[in-house]
Design goal:
Layout: H1 5-20, H2 27-34, H3 38-44, H4 48-72, H5 77-90, H6 92-105, H7 114-126, H8 135-157, H9 165-180
């Protein structure tokens, strides 16, 4: 069976960042973990920043696919939140990576970039009952809600907060304070 080295690098990076943080990425350690030479990593990614950016985009896409599936299934924003929370708690390396990425590099989906257009399309559908919101407000609201999701899931998966139903409900209430009052 043929190896999908790029996928393996992606998964190894998520795990690596979860253990060490995004500021301490070592391509040499990644290569050793995967049993490949460091040059293989740089064959797929021109530098470390390109590697983390591509992984962030890939994780964005995974979450967007989950959100789109919720839309197709007729779920509202509250139900979508539940699906996304369960997903990130089940697969915490991605959420922890993305949380570190956003904080370290200062990515903001409300900035004018190609990802903000994708976020906007999905967020407009998820927030359809919040009519009259302009595009910027929709993006800020989506950013706020997902930031809360990543922040509290990060706390839960790192052991700072118990991932029980009571805490999940509290986190949802916090995240939806703005949503419910806008």
């Amino acid at each position: 069976m043929k190896r999908n080295t790029k996928d393996e690098i992606y998964n190894a990076l998520l795990s690596h960042v979860n253990r060490k943080g995004i500021a301490d990425i070592s391509t040499l350690e990644l290569a050793k973990e995967l049993g490949i030479s460091e040059s293989v990593i740089f064959y797929h990614f021109k530098n470390v920043r390109n590697l983390v950016d591509e992984c962030a985009v890939r994780y964005d896409r995974e979450l967007m696919e989950k959100a789109v599936q919720c839309i197709l299934d007729g779920k509202d924003m509250s139900q979508t939140w539940d699906v996304l929370m369960e997903y990130v708690l089940k697969e915490p390396n991605g959420a922890n990576f993305y949380f570190d990425y956003v904080n370290y590099y200062g990515f903001d989906p409300t900035e004018n970039n190609k990802r903000s257009d994708e976020f906007l399309k999905i967020a407009k559908i998820l927030f359809k009952e919040k009519s009259g919101l302009d595009n910027h407000t929709i993006l800020v609201l989506w950013d706020y809600i997902t930031t809360q999701l990543f922040y509290y899931c990060n706390k839960m998966t790192k052991g700072f907060m118990e991932p029980n139903e009571e805490n999940k409900a509290l986190v949802k209430k916090i995240a939806f304070l703005v949503y419910d009052n806008i």
